[in-house]
Amino acid sequence: MTSQGTALRFGYGTNGLADLRLDDALALLADLGYDGVGLTLDHMHLDPLAPDLAARTGRVARRLAALGLDVTVETGARYVLDPRRKHGPSLLDPDPEARARRVDLLLRAVRVAADLGAHAVHCFSGIVPPGDDTATAWERLAAALTPVLEAADTAGIPLAVEPEPGHLLATLADFHHLRGLLGDPPALGLTMDLGHCQCLEPLPPADCVRAAAPWLRHVQIEDMRRGVHDHLPFGEGEMDFPPLLAALAATGYQGLTVVELPRHSHAGPHYAETSLPFLRRAAAAAAATAPAASGAGAPVTAAPTAAAQAAANPAVAAPAVAALVTAAPGAANPVPAVPDTTVREGSTP
Fold first, then answer.
1. What whole-number distance in Å separates Cα of residue 139 and Cα of residue 133?
2. What is the pTM of this model?
3. SS3 for 293-347, per residue?
4. Per-residue pLDDT tens over the stretch 121-130
5. Cβ neighbours around 151 below 10 Å, total
6. Where is the Xylose isomerase-like TIM barrel domain positioned along the sequence (predicted)?
7. Could you tell me which of 65, 86, 66 has the C-alpha nearest to residue 76?
8. At 182, is the secondary structure helix, strand, or coil?
9. Residue of 170, 270, 292, 347 with fewest CB within 10 Å of its CB?
10. Where do the DSSP E strands lie in the chain?
11. Is it the case that residue 142 has pLDDT exceeding 70?
């Protein structure tokens, strides 16, 4: 690691290239210079429910190796389990058999990730079903994730849970609540969508990164506006990327930072082509300004020191997040009290 942290490695999500065959999508990303891919298991991209999954996974692994692409496995496909219910069934479904289908998908994803040599498997909680209380939902989530975490631990693949606006587990504070419920298992990690931090976290995105550093296993990135869960191309939101990327590099994070534009597949190749230069310019700007701000011989900024302290003592970071939300962890989707800020419903990718 340099004084400015690790060099960030960028990828692009296949859920933003849904109109391309998987092989074509991988070739495109390699040609554009990406370091890797966020591979969403879906009917058009390495269908996790179709026959011969292991053989098909082996072919994809060989293709990734030939192209020099790393991979994280994502499980946020909208209709892979149910053609009529977006993201259904979830880990919170009242029907145990329905929940078991989602658990089976995640177990398949762990096996795929192990065969691909992936950095992590991504997942999210789901929305609390109408009429259910949050205490019951947390119990279901913890029980459903337990066998997945056991499989992930055996495979040596982190299970990186994503706080998703509108879901039961919506914030960093909620993630720490889940850690407590599960007894902080070693396979449990965090997927941090940096746009979600802009959308609803009480901390600024760069501070979210510092607070979450010990648990970061996967990172997603896009532009976003405060209070509106809408994944935007870079430059169309409100986010300030050089200090955000500086904070991320300073943590020593070594996984992929994956562009997440699932509503832009109609122009996926265009946004894949334009996103990487934007991120590289932002990363270069972060690297260029950090030494001037710190002075010779001093830390780059106060941020790396905070991240290092959190990594050395993970208990430090959780209260830093939880203390700044307006409801305790485990309450119904705590949202910071920001005037005129309401997370828009129905905008989950």
1. 10
2. 0.86
3. HHCCCCCCCHHHHHHHHHHHCHHHHHHHHHCCCCCCCCCCCCCCCCCCCCCCCCC
4. 999 999 999 9
5. 21
6. 26-281
7. 86
8. helix
9. 292
10. 9-13, 36-40, 70-74, 121-123, 159-161, 188-193, 216-221, 223-225, 228-232, 256-259
11. yes
CA 5 to chain centre: 20
Residues 92 and 98: their CA atoms lie apart, in Å, by: 9
So where are the chain's domains? 9-322
Cα separation, 299 vs 185, whole angstroms: 32
How far, CA to CA in Å, does 28 sit from each of 13, 43, 45, 232, 268?
12, 20, 15, 21, 10
| Single-letter amino acid code for the residue at 105 | L
Is residue 256 within 8 Å of 218, Cβ to Cβ?
yes
pLDDT in tens, 33-71: 999 999 999 999 999 999 999 999 999 999 999 999 999
Q: Which of 95, 10, 101, 108 is nearest to 54 (CA)?
A: 108
Structure-token pair, residue 43: 């009917």
9-322 CATH fold: TIM Barrel (3.20.20)
Look-up of token digits 């901390």: 203
Residues 6+ apart with CB under 8 A from 12: 29, 34, 37, 38, 258, 259, 272, 275, 276
Token pair in block for residue 174: 């909620």
Q: Is the peptide bond before 89 cis (omega within 30 degrees of 0)?
A: yes
Helix (H, G, I), strand (E, B) or coil at 92: coil
Distances (CA, A) of 224 to 206, 220, 282: 14, 12, 16
Residue 18 sits at the vertex; the CA angle it makes with 236 and 196, to the nearest 5 degrees, is 40
Using CA atoms, how far residue 117 sits from 11, 73, 77, 214, in Å, is 16, 10, 21, 22
